[in-house]
Design brief:
By secondary structure, the chain is mainly α. Helix content is 95%, strand content 0%.
Length: 131
């Protein structure tokens, strides 16, 4: 009887060990699969981050290029505006000069008219009056 109990106990122990081995192997396989899934997920995220980084670098380079072009264009506009302002000043100077010249010519014209009028009156006074 004791030997039967011992055999039954050993058989039961053996079945439980085999069951534990099967479960251990199943858990190991599940852990390996989980590990693969986690690594794949992490690799996908790293790959996404890498792609985003490359896109950001590309956009950054394009932004720097556009900013440099904008700066050059702004400098050209400033030069053009300065040249335009200078031309306006020169036009203003010419306009003032022309107005001065016109005023002087008007004065000379009035003076000559006044002198001519005085000369005509003087000749009329000098001439003998016929009665």
């Amino acid at each position: 009887m004791m030997s039967q109990k011992m055999k039954a106990y050993q058989t039961k122990q053996s079945i439980q060990r085999e069951l534990q081995d099967v479960r251990r192997k199943d858990i190991q396989q599940l852990c390996a699969q989980l590990n693969v899934l986690l690594v794949d997920k992490m690799n996908n995220r790293v790959e996404g981050a890498y792609i985003n980084q490359k896109k950001l670098q590309s956009h950054s380079r394009q932004l720097q290029f556009n900013a440099a072009n904008l700066q050059k264009q702004s400098e050209q506009w400033l030069k053009l505006l300065d040249n335009f302002n200078q031309a306006l000043k020169e036009i203003g100077d010419v306009s003032n000069w022309a107005k001065s010249l016109e005023n002087e010519m008007t004065k000379i014209s009035h003076t000559l008219a006044y002198a001519y009028k005085g000369e005509v009156e003087s000749k009329q006074n000098d001439s003998p009056i016929l009665e």
